[in-house]
């Protein structure tokens, strides 16, 4: 037994590497993984080359996010419905979570908040719009299960509203200098995590048939063996953490140099980079006329940011970082989140998709990006 | 003939008491009616015990509201469809109306406005959410008539928008010191009552089949004889008026002592107390898988607050109270009303209910309550 | 050949006049065309009679708008599906476009913006509400194709959002004095026109079956010969331009004299006058139980204002007028546009109409009008 175990532990890394290599061949995006050692070396050798570090770190995170997503699904597939669903649900936005934790630790609250808002907006408008457009270019009119879509959209709407309450009452916070907003954000975070827990019971236990199709995300892709999945999960999580720290360290100087606001970087760049893996899945599902899956991923991922990532960041901010973080967003971000969620709700509502609806959603997203790009810095504090 | 009539008039009070006693046995909540004489006596003996008076008055209003609702329905059942429907529609929120009239007379405009806003939000989120949760714990997936629900939800949305127009343009009111807001609120109130009158024609005459199920609210409960119904209606209305006056007289001091803001008291406490009777009906209907009825009560009651109670209060404020009241709400209340109405619209839209949707709606309500609880006083003026 | 051509060119004007006369007999509204020469003469003789000029110009524009609409449709009917659809789509709001161009040239940006906002709100609430009410007074319950209506409503919602982005982030524009807002508005305008162009491809080419019924607008009305259509189109466009210039020249003094704000004139008067022709069509379609058509006209026309008229005005403002115009609206107009679009979305959503829904939409419109009427001037800058 002992020798066998020892043997396994020595073969595992090798076979993990083999698996990774095989994956790399199949999915060309993974070739970007080459940038992971590059960025780590570069940071040691030229820590002041912020702009270069910024771009190389982005290039390195994309394939890591894809691997993370693949590993999570493999582990989930091998651990059975309940644990697997839990893993998929919890680790679905792991990349965003790690990047924002790094930003939190560095005290860059604006970046953290912009990333939260941006992830919700990107999932609601860009992922939805992209899926409708890509699906619609191949299929004349696509139908999807509108009962489920509507149900998930109304959950997303309520989740978004929930995290926006402190912002909606924020103008009132003149008197006791932020104390009210702090308390409210903490109470809210605890409540949201409880609601998220109940949501797991709902989607994994009492009403799992409503969410069934999402589970079969990677049909056709064979899951990795459990041990490889776990090893990849741990190793890649560590790598994402390392690269994220480099990214966050370089972002301020790089953004200044490139003329980008932190709001733009958080809202657009991090959201697109962190969600790249999910988007690939959602878009290829739309192309395969499985729009139910695309809609489920987009709505589910956005809701998870609101109900899980955002409150976790608030609670963690009490332990790391210079001071507790509130859930107060600047008014423009609030408007964008509300509008994006309502757009996703409207688009889910009909149960039909055509390419032009995708164009419209992408146009609204482009307008948001343009706004954030043109916005004078210092405005979004 | 004459003796018979005389006889009837003497037997009526006794039989009314008997009926009340029988009701008390059937519905244990009514036992709280014991607090009605207690609060009246207490107010005479210890007018300065504000906090005690506050709680006892709340305990006394709950059973009175239940009796009022029962009496209204009994009279409605005996007076035929048209008059009965009219009564049900007009007196459905009688408790809220009496409490807010007492607050209006005392010049507590903040409490009045908070009660209006709170009643709309409580009906849209708490009653809806509670019905979905209670129904969903017993039934896996509940369906309801989505055509009717959607129609009523869009009416509620328009009604809410209507009363929010002065608030949405309120930031503009710098120049002529409130005069614009006064005029607008009065014009609006007259228009809303006209719209409400047309709504009666619609729901009781031209399209009564759309609202049919709501009329059979108390199936199984035998209506009281007409005379008893009328007597109870008058007597209990008077009692509610007396207790409301005591409640309003004690609320400011009590709230200060308990650390509650007037906004919290109006928004949450009065809304829950005033709507207790309707909620009981809506929740038991949900349990009995008659979700159509629950949805109809919640949406209809919220719309009635916007189209009838709010404008009546504005118009009455010209005759009682220190000065006319406008329909201008503080921005947080506006956001909450809009969001609650949109949530109710979304939840009605699908035609399906499951317990988690109820949890989400209740969570948003809890977040609103938490916000109002933590809010520093003086902010909601 | 040559003589024949020459002959045709001489007979055309005469037969055009004949056709116009025949139309005048059929549609009594066209008798108002008498005011066109009156207003032109009056402006020469009494250029200072602003209030009189204001009213006569309004009376003159209504029949011109009707003729313009009729001529556009005639030309469209004769030039085949593709070109005709393009014409109908582009010239559908030609009257609004000409009036606002005249206002733009005069530097009356407030009037321009109020007209844009007002056209969207008027199409969404007044045209929708009127169609529901007029249709509902004749038919108990009207059904319409909710898949198409929903799809078009979600496009309208996205289009409205798009033009509102600069306003939603406008509070942020303190620092660089409007420069950000200018740039954003220009970028947005270019993007919107591109989206509008794609929308043509969508509605006229790839998915024309979704919009089919709208094309048969004037069933029963025989189209004019092509040559007459083109001549009328050109002549009437010139007349509208002349009358619009007189109107814009008189509006400021007249509004001051009548106690009307420019916001009221732009939002309500211009929107109703400019849209009179379309409303006539939408209302008579509702009466004929062709609610699909009414809904299509209302939603389509509102979306066209947002996607075509508004961006064209922004771009043209760089060439005419004292300075470039941004797409920033005052907060009240933003709220009204958002609310009106959401109301139209909700009303489309159900697929059912009854008269009371029309009353509610008209009531909200009346409240908006009352607000703008009471609004102190100087507030909407």
Automatic annotation (TrEMBL), chains A, B, C:
Cellular location(s): Endomembrane system
Give the InterPro entries listed for this entry. Answer: CaH_exchang, CAX-like, NaCa_Exmemb, NCX_ion-bd_dom_sf
Name of this protein: Ca(2+)/H(+) antiporter
Provide GO CC annotations from the record. Answer: endomembrane system; membrane
Record keyword Transferase present: no
| GO terms, biological process | intracellular calcium ion homeostasis
Q: What role does this protein play?
A: Ca(+)/H(+) antiporter that extrudes calcium in exchange for external protons.
Which family does the entry's similarity section mention? Belongs to the Ca(2+):cation antiporter (CaCA) (TC 2.A.19) family.
Mind telling me which residue stretches traverse the membrane in this protein?
Answer: 29-46, 52-69, 110-134, 154-172, 184-204, 224-248, 260-277, 297-320, 327-347, 353-375
Q: Name one Pfam family in it.
A: Na_Ca_ex
Cite the Sodium/calcium exchanger membrane region domain residue spans from the record: 51-204, 229-373
GO molecular function terms listed in the Swiss-Prot or TrEMBL record? calcium:proton antiporter activity
Species annotation: Sinorhizobium medicae (strain WSM419) (Ensifer medicae)
The source's superkingdom equals Bacteria
Task: Recite the UniProt keywords alphabetically.
Answer: Antiport, Calcium, Calcium transport, Ion transport, Membrane, Plasmid, Transmembrane, Transmembrane helix, Transport
Membrane topology is: Multi-pass membrane protein
């Amino acid at each position: 037994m002992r020798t066998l175990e020892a043997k396994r532990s020595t073969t595992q890394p090798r076979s993990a590497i083999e698996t990774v290599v095989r994956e790399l061949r199949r999915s060309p995006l993974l070739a970007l993984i080459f940038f992971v050692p590059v960025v780590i070396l570069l940071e040691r050798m030229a820590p002041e080359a912020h702009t270069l570090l910024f771009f190389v770190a982005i290039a390195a995170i994309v394939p890591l996010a894809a691997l993370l997503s693949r590993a999570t699904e493999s582990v989930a597939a091998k651990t059975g419905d309940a644990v697997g669903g839990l893993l998929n649900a919890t680790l679905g936005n792991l990349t965003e979570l790690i990047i924002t934790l790094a930003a939190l630790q560095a005290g860059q609250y604006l970046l953290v908040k912009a990333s939260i808002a941006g992830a919700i907006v990107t999932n609601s408008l860009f992922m939805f719009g992209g899926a409708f457009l890509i699906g619609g270019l191949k299929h004349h009119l696509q139908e999807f299960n509108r009962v489920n879509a509507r149900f998930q959209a109304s959950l997303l709407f309520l989740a978004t509203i929930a995290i926006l309450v402190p912002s909606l009452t924020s103008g009132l916070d003149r008197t006791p200098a932020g104390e009210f907003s702090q308390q409210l954000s903490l109470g809210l975070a605890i409540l949201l995590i409880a609601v998220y827990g109940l949501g797991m019971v709902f989607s994994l236990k009492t009403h799992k048939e409503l969410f069934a199709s999402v589970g079969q995300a990677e049909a056709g892709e064979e899951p990795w063996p459990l041990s490889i999945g776990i090893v990849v999960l741990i190793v890649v999580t560590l790598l994402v953490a390392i690269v994220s720290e480099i990214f966050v360290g370089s972002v301020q100087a790089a953004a200044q140099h490139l003329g980008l606001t932190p709001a733009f970087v958080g809202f657009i760049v991090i959201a697109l980079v962190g969600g790249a893996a999910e988007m690939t899945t959602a878009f290829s599902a739309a192309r395969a006329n499985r729009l139910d899956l695309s809609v489920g991923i987009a709505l589910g991922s956005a809701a998870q940011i609101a109900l899980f990532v955002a409150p976790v960041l608030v609670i963690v901010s009490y332990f790391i970082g210079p001071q507790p973080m509130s859930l107060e967003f600047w008014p423009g971000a609030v408007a964008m989140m509300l509008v994006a969620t309502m757009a996703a709700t409207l688009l889910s509502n009909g149960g039909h998709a055509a390419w032009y609806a995708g164009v419209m959603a992408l146009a609204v997203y482009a307008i948001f990006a343009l706004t954030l790009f043109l916005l004078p810095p210092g405005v979004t504090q």
